[in-house]
Amino acid sequence: MSDLAIGVIGYGLRGSLAKHAHHPGEGSRVVALYDPDPAAHERFRADFGADVHVGDDLEAFLRLGLDAVFVLSPDHMHEEHAVTLLEAGIAVYLEKPMAITTEGCDRVLRVAQKTGGRLYLGHNMRHMPFVREMKRLIDSGAIGEPKVAWCRHFVGHGGDFYFADWHAERRYATSLLLQKGAHDIDVLHWLCGSYSRDVTGMGDRLVYDVDQAGEEAPWWQRRSLDRWPPKSLTGLNPRMDVEDVSMILMRLENGILASYQQCHFTPDYWRNYTIIGTEGRIENFGNGEPGTVIRIWNRRHNYDAEGDVVVPIEPETGGHGGADPRIVAEFLRYVRSGGATETSPIAARYAVATGCAGAESLRAGGTPVRVPEADPAVVAYFEG
Which parts of the sequence belong to the GFO/IDH/MocA-like oxidoreductase domain (predicted)? Predict the structure, then answer.
């Protein structure tokens, strides 16, 4: 079996994902990078060898005869990069969010349908062991029929990662309901077996402010847990105009009521999902770190912190609790032979559409917003 020739667009924070695709002589080899940053070229050569192609000429990159490309560029570039690759006949791994507008997502889907191209979405949380186990338990009837769902997202590194660069600007991100929330909205949709139909939201920037702008701290300092409290941080983006707290309520197409709360100045960094059904409640504690468990309450109680069933989740190696190597392996299999995948272009579109509706609602004082439906012909193409 000859190696798939793999390219990468954008070698920033998610660049490590491509390392899971580099198996020379075993089926896939990372051979090229398109990125305008010379520093990224040096990092790429250090990781994949001096003989790789690196450059800032997209047309030259497209002429290399690549089999597949990881699109890991900033969010506002996803749409154009995906469309360009699909029109060139190259399989695409598109990092979430799919685009920063619902219209952008629909454009990508139409191009993939028209060209027959292979489009794969990087919603790696569907490959996280604790999420997969929650999905299995819910689908097996462990809590009866799901009726209520919510996610609390504690983004302890908000000032380090999301208010120090382009993520803090609407023109590049629309809202952090996309960059961060697209993961959680997709997981809520997946666990509940339905997409959002109506959304209402509230949000604000309550802590981070332009008066915290200034010289940006080096990345290794920005990862330090000693950077506390949030109001003491410096080096933030002076053009910030996204919210550091966002809360949305969703009515799903199947009638389930769901909520998502995101805070960027909490001291801890993890996600907590709770699903309540007609016969119980399920909840995760931890996101794959040592000690992560899923708890189920399926008998009546007063206060009970332990639950009736405790399911331990064993830690796995690899980024995001083992999800990164799993999702890359599935993508490479999909490039070679097609077939069903755990991630879904339609689901990715609805995650963005829900986040966009939530941002529209919260900026309009909580006015309810209907999530636009996807084109039925496009849905049939991807889900048929």
Answer: 131-283
pLDDT in tens, 130-148: 999 999 999 999 999 999 9
Among candidate residues 163, 190, 198, the one with its CA nearest the CA of residue 179? 163
**Per CATH, domain 130-324 is 3.40.50.620:** no
What amino acid occupies position 295? R
Q: Which residues pair with 200 in a beta bridge?
A: 249
Peptide bond preceding 325: is omega within 30 degrees of 0, i.e. cis? Answer: no
Residue among 225, 254, 231 nearest 244 (CA): 231
Is the backbone of residue 34 left (phi > 0), alpha (psi -120 to 50) or beta? Answer: beta
Q: How far apart are CA 365 and CA 109, in angstroms?
A: 31
Residue 325, C-beta contacts closer than 8 angstroms, at least 6 positions apart: 20, 317, 318, 319
212: amino acid identity, one letter? Q
Q: How far is CA 105 from CA 77, 83, 84, 94, 375, in A?
A: 12, 10, 14, 11, 11
Domain boundaries, the chain: 130-324
Phi, psi of 129 (to 5 degrees): -55, -40
**CA-closest candidate to residue 355, choices 185, 191, 202, 205:** 185
Establish whether the linkage from the previous residue to 36 is cis, with ω within 30° of 0: no
pTM of the model: 0.96
